[in-house]
Design brief:
Elements lengths: L2 H11 L8 E3 L1 H7 L2 E6 L9 H10 L3 H5 L2 E4 L3 H12 L4 E6 L4 H9 L3 E5 L2 H13 L3 E3 L5 H17 L5 E5 L4 H13 L4 E7 L4 H8 L22 H10 E7 L1 H14 L6 H13 L8 E6 L6 H7 L1
Helix pairs in contact: 1-3, 1-8, 3-5, 3-8, 5-6, 8-9, 9-11, 12-13
Length: 313
């Protein structure tokens, strides 16, 4: 996956996704002492960046391949994205989910047209995929797929097209597909631009992998940022982080929630903790920015249920 793949993905998915806005925030700029811009990807179709990769993968399949059906594993935004993209392109889809998946994710995924297969755990969900593949269905991995990563990378391409003077991009990491695609786009266009990764404590597979030098399987996901809940990163996303990312900042849930509330009250948008954690990380990283820097925070998703929000508070 390189910048050429990302440019091809941009043309391929253009009719199906939104070009989300990038805006300077006066509030965040004053707070952090530099120029802070927000990429409002939470206004993407299905409420997150995931449709970019889903559409790029699906549109790369033959008509015959799509006709045999699509299967995916997810307890979050990837589920909704694959369901929506499949339905839009006339393909049937089955989403295998762990039983712990929040109800609003299950209901939204079903509403987008997918059949739901609930399994006891995320590991069991991945194990169940094999039987569907034997029947000819195409598996769309949530992050470890070059076509999926190239699709996510179109977000980084938009940032650099809209703000060529970007100096820093702060992006959250689950399995690393978004980070890998965005970092590839940003660093290919501007070698001087820096990409900073963010995780939350209890959903920190990438930081543990960077420390160990190889992917590490988390024994449990304890963070409230469930859309960052990859049990492990892949060799390919780890390599991209090692080569393209300055560092990975790990913040506690409490700071992600504090940032979420600040964003809701001051910027008037409701993000997920997986998105608001970028602001929490920016506050920890602010000594790395100059007054004339142009820092972009990626608000990657906004599929936040009100019941969960009340629980956080």
């Amino acid at each position: 996956m390189d910048i050429t793949d990302i440019r091809l993905a941009q043309e391929r998915i253009k009719p199906y996704v939104r070009r989300t806005r990038l805006e300077r925030s006066e509030t965040l700029s004053r707070s952090l002492g530099t120029n802070v811009h927000v990429k409002y990807e939470l206004f993407q179709r299905t409420g997150s960046f995931k449709v970019r990769g889903a559409f790029n993968k699906l549109l790369s399949l033959s008509d015959e391949g799509r006709a045999k059906g699509i299967v995916a594993v997810s307890g979050g935004n990837h589920a909704q994205a694959v369901a929506y993209a499949s339905t839009k392109l006339g393909a049937s889809s089955i989403i295998v989910m762990p039983e712990s998946t929040p109800r609003h994710y299950i209901e939204a995924t079903r509403a987008y047209g997918a059949e739901i297969d609930l399994q006891p755990t995320i590991a069991a969900a991945f194990d169940a995929v094999g039987s569907y593949q034997k029947n000819g269905m195409t598996f769309i991995h949530p992050f470890d797929d070059p076509l999926v990563m190239a699709g996510q990378g179109t977000l980084g391409l938009e940032i650099m097209e809209d703000l060529p003077e970007t100096s820093d991009v702060i992006v959250s990491i689950g399995g690393g597909g978004l980070m890998g695609g965005v970092a590839t786009a940003v660093r290919s266009i501007s070698g001087a631009a820096r990409v900073w990764g963010v995780e939350t404590i209890g959903a920190d597979a990438m930081s543990k992998a960077l420390e160990a030098g190889h992917p590490v399987q988390l024994t449990a996901i304890t963070s409230i940022a469930k859309t960052l809940a990859a049990p492990a990163v892949s060799e390919s996303t780890l390599a991209l982080a090692q080569n393209l990312v300055e560092s990975v900042t790990v913040v506690p849930d409490s700071e992600a929630v504090e940032a979420l509330v600040f964003i809701a009250e001051r910027l008037k948008v409701l993000t997920e903790p997986a998105a608001s954690c970028t602001l929490a990380a920016a506050d920890r990283l602010k000594q790395n920015f100059r007054p004339n820097s142009n820092v972009v925070l990626v608000f990657c998703g906004g599929n936040q249920s009100i019941s969960d929000l009340c629980g956080y508070l």
